[in-house]
Amino acid sequence: MNSKAQFLQVLLVIVTMTFAVRASNNMVSTTVPLLARYYFHFTQTEIGLISAVFSLGTFVTSGLLNSKLPSPTRRKVFIASSIAYAVVLPLYYLVGPLTLWLLTGVAGLTLGSVMPNIITSAGLLEDRRARERVLSIYTLALSASLVAGPAIETAILSSFSLPYVFLFFTPLGAVAAILSFLIKFPEEKTGSTMKVKVIGNPGFTTAVINILAYNIPFAVILAFGGIYAVSEFHVSFAEVTGLFTLFFATSLLSRIYLSIRPADSVRLHAMTAMSLTVIGLLLILFGINVYSFAIALLILGFPHGLTYPLSIISISRTFSPAERNAANSVFFATMMLVGVVTPSIAGALAQEIGLKDLFGVLIPVVLVLLVMLNKYVRVVDNVVKEEIKARA
């Protein structure tokens, strides 16, 4: 098999597994709050907490386990986690109000090993432009799954109740478990104990500030967006998932753009993403009907599509291949920590000020992060400038 065929085979495995895991993972993130609220009558605070439990499990596995394991052991944990995730999905059909907490925590634990290793595998190429193109295609697969997943869920909910959704998504978990055996892991020297300085690296700091500016609003949208649409505009569960399809469709368009034209300037794209986030949140805050809410989701989809690939590109530019697993694991753990803290605080705030005003509180947070980003992002863009100089 020639190198091009091998490249396409690796890309096919990464894209397919990414699609299967992210589509089903997003379904869990958006459906568990609905199940908790309308089947088990959880309060807004409890809904925030159960969303936090999911992210906490992912944070523990990604930040405390995956980042420290050597490559051979990490591969075994990755495969075991992928199989466990496939087993967890159908069990949601049988949950009660207590077991819902337990199962959601277990689902989070499994994903903490799965997702960072797919990111690392997608970034193993040495050539920067080829690597960043693969990373953009990887994030494109993420977006495609986030369009297809809610669309499939909308069709399911037109004929079945919420618990059945987990059964219909179970085959995706099975596909991920099978493909986990084919994911490539970076080679490491036997007995290597290299310590990687992640915190303080400008590329990592850029990636974190960039993702915070979107992950904080996104965590609130995932946990409470569907509930807000049902309570404020009286839409059906099927229409809720249809609204999320709009959101992920524009996210997909953003990532198609980055796959065709990799972003040399992270700063320009990140600033654009943050500005669109503010506009979308303002539209939710001052919107008066479901149509304005739908337009807000369409606008917010664009920064969702841009932000994550820009962050992992920032990491890939400022860490060597041997260092990227540690950086990606800590980065993913940071994302999950946001997913723990944000819904917990948001749930308590929503109880006091209401869901509409909750979205307004997020606007100054994004603006502060936009100012902070300028301090670090230029270092990431300088990597490209130095590369261009070297070629001249």
Structure description:
By secondary structure, the protein is mainly α. It has 14 helices and no strands. It has helices at residues 3-38, 44-65, 71-91, 99-122, 128-157, 162-168, 170-179, 202-233, 237-260, 266-286, 290-318, 324-353, 355-373, 377-391. α1 (3-38) packs antiparallel against α4, α2 (44-65) packs across α4 and α5 (128-157) packs antiparallel against α11.
Report mean pLDDT, rounded to a whole number.
84
Oligomeric state of the chains?
single chain
| Number of beta strands | 0
Largest pleated sheet? none
Morphology call: globular
Order of helices and strands: HHHHHHHHHHHHHH
The poorly predicted ranges are none
Which range does the strand content fall in?
A: under 5%
